[in-house]
Amino acid sequence: MRRFMEFMERHFVPIAARIGGQRHLVAIRDGFVSIMPLILAGSFAVLLNNTLFVWLPALNFLSGINGNVWWGTFAIMTLLVVFSTSYHLAKGYNVDALAAGLISVGAFLVVTPQAHGDAGWGYIHWGYLNATGLFTGIIVALIATEIFVKLIKKNIIIKMPDNVPPAVGKAFAAVIPGVVTLFTFGLLTFIITKLNANSLYDLIYNAIQKPLQGFSQGVGSAIVLAMLINLFWFFGLHGANIMDPIMNSLYLPALEANAGAIQQGLQAPNAITRVFFDTYVHLGGSGATLALILAIYLVSKKRREYKEVAKLSTPLGLFQINESMMFGIPIVLNPLMFIPFIIIPGVLTFTAWLATVSGLIPPTYVAIPWITPVGIGAFLATGGSFMAGLVALANFALATVIYLPFVMLSERISTEKNEEVKSDNKLSA
Questions:
Q1: According to a count of CB atoms within 10 Å of the terminal CB, is the N or C end of the chain lower?
Q2: What is the mean pLDDT of residues 398-413?
Q3: pTM, two decimal places
């Protein structure tokens, strides 16, 4: 274990720290976080249409309201992410973030097919704007912003006199970079279309997004990603923040696809979504540390510091916040806690996946706040399935059982150390 720790600290931690602070990944992460209110609103609309209005048919005439909310949230999710990601990336470069975001949205529409079925040219189907286009949107946003920023930094702009209002000056400064950016994507799209490759949108979707989404629905890949979050955390790095760009890019489209299918009265196609991990795996935070708190309450008798940290962490853990446990026990760089902390997310991911694919519980399709307590989150995310709530509680019990022997071992080690200290004190006296 000591050699492993030394190897990881020497080779893994520096790389992980650089990944966590990488400008583009941070922009993607912050871009998704910024649109969370809209995602929650869209999910709530889908939830109402498929629970309350089903249970109370007299209210069904109001379902059109929820349809309109869904149209303004989930149906245009990629547009929102494009703007938000570009905005945060440009802000990181300290250039005009608003202009960069608007230009990126324009660039995304430039590469989006302008025809659908028999509708003719000039028609954009919402299927290109929802989560299906996230990978294309993110790639376009990053490239468009980089072009915009580089031209701004090289001072290739229209300069206005100092007495011109700042808003006007910024607008004119963005003209040349904006024109170059949009025409770059226009030319690229034109070439791809002439080569009979459909469009840049289709090219990215078929070559990158579709294979990755298929990969992400495998239980093995889900287990690896869940465990990787905890591996980062073990070395003191915020695993959730580091992995958020990947998790959102892979699993938010799956959530939106499930919501869209449910909205149309169809079967949800994806077993694993972004909310899946929050409801069945991160119970009390990464590593299901609320279960560790319960294990400490059950068997910790002599480690006073454990019990004090557990008491202070309980109110936070109920709402999925666990930094006090991470650094208070600590779990970070604690070899004794390494094994349960790493294997628990893999075990919980597998059991929840098995319950979902077997039909015991429905797939998750409602985005919920990550701070939703254990059991309640699964109930809401599945549109009101009591069995899903019970599976989440069963996972919580399973995590507690896995933590128990390690807490007991910690007790024994602590007792042995205390006896050694007492023995040394007697000898020295």
A1: C
A2: 89
A3: 0.78
Query: Between the CA of residue 174 and those of 90, 137, 279, what are the distances in Å?
Result: 12, 21, 44
- Apex CA 328: angle with CA 378 and CA 310, to 5°? 55
User: What average pLDDT does the chain have?
Assistant: 85
CA distance 111 to 74: 20
H helices present in 318-385, as ranges: 323-328, 335-357, 376-381
CA distance 35 to 86: 13
pLDDT the model gives residue 237: 80
Residue 303 CB contacts under 8 Å (≥ 6 apart), including other chains: 296, 410, 411, 414
Cα separation, 253 vs 367, in Å, equals 12
Domain limits, the chain: 2-218, 224-428
For residue 146, what are the CA distances in angstroms to 23, 152, 408? 11, 10, 54
Q: What is the largest CA-CA distance in the chain?
A: 95
First-to-last C-alpha distance (Å) of the chain: 36
Work out the pLDDT band at 399, boundaries 50, 70, 90.
Answer: very high
**Cβ neighbour number for residue 113 with a 10 Å cutoff:** 18
Query: Cα 189 from chain centroid?
Result: 30
- Considering only residues 94 and 429, tell me which one the structure prediction assigns the higher pLDDT: 94
Can you list the alpha helix ranges (DSSP code H) found in 266-334?
A: 274-280, 289-299, 304-317, 323-328
Residues 135, 204 contacting (CB under 8 angstroms): yes
Q: Select from 201, 181, 183 the least CA-distant residue to 192.
A: 201
CA neighbor of 126 nearest in space, from 34, 33, 256: 256
